[in-house]
Amino acid sequence: MKRLINQQPSKAGKWLLGALPFILILLVYLVASNERLAVNPNDKLMPSFEAFGHAIHTMAFEPSKRTGDYLLWADTLASLQRLGIGVGISALISLVVGILIGIIPLLRASFAPVVTVISLVPPLAILPILFIIFGLGEVAKITLIVLGITPFLIRDVQLRVMALPEELIIKAQTLGASTWQLIVRVVLPQVLPKLIDAVRLSLGAAWLFLIAAEAISATEGLGYRLFLVRRYLAMDVILPYVLWITLLAFLTDYLLRRLSLYAFPWQQTEGGAK
Fold it and tell me: What distance in Å separates the CA atoms of residue 258 and residue 193, rounded to the nearest whole number?
């Protein structure tokens, strides 16, 4: 008798098993929504799918009477720009600082404790300080993302560098490599794919900081729209926006994974190819 732990689903079975929880969630929501609307047709807590469709059409395909913009796309563009700049700056800083404190013991002794302490500071707690220093514009929002995920990325890169085989470092020095050559030709190619993995893991936190900043001070953006329509209990807008943010996060993670596979095809995880 084949044990359960040794049974592997087919490709079609994986798709079916993966889709099953989502189908069940939709069915549960549909039943609960129908029951609530049967009691109170004006219920806003669990709108019907028809209400979702109408709200999505209004936000995505009808220009705003106030601004003339298609709100869903304008919000998406604003949020993705902030997220892209913030994550890009964080990745660049983390790559440079993480490699330096990982490979040079003197720098590690000086800066690693500071990075550790900064990583323990709740980023949302310093959001008011950022607004005071940088104002209510884009800089404060982007800075929150940078401060929120950079310490984590730096520590991850540092650990990846320190985990490189010691014989690899010694062999490069034996062949006459300087510190700069060692970093560029040995450390950097090993760390870059790991950095992409770390960025993928930090995307959830980056979205959290972005939405928090937009909710407090913004005139457009996905987080701004969510907290604007909550005043009217507009669940027909809130839930599609939440699902849209989830889809954007999933697509971003997928694109980063594909980038890693394309740029570093030799890189494999412990369990095999990515």
Answer: 11
CA-to-CA distance for 274 and 182, rounded, in angstroms? 27
CA–CA separation, 100 and 108 (whole Å): 8
CB atoms within 10 A of CB 204: 11
Angle value at C-alpha 101, between 98 and 105, nearest 5 degrees: 155
Question: What tens digit of pLDDT does each residue of 6-65 get?
Answer: 778 888 888 888 888 889 998 998 898 888 888 888 888 888 888 889 999 988 898 888
DSSP labels for 1-48? ---GGG----HHHHHHHHHHHHHHHHHHHHHHHHHHHHH-TT--SS--
Q: What pTM was estimated for this model as a whole?
A: 0.84
Query: Is CATH 1.10.3720.10 correct for 71-263?
Result: yes
Could you give the dihedral angle defined by the CA atoms of residues 34, 40, 41 and 43, in that order, rounded to the nearest 10 degrees? -90
Q: Which two tokens stand for residue 169?
A: 């470092």
What's 177's DSSP letter? -
Query: Contacts for 9-18 with beta carbons within 8 Å, 24 or more apart?
Result: none
Q: Long-range contacts of range 64-71, CB-CB < 8 Å, 24 or more positions apart?
A: 69/220, 71/225
Distance CA 92, CA 9 (A): 40
Encode pLDDT of 33-49 as tens digits. 888 888 888 888 888 88
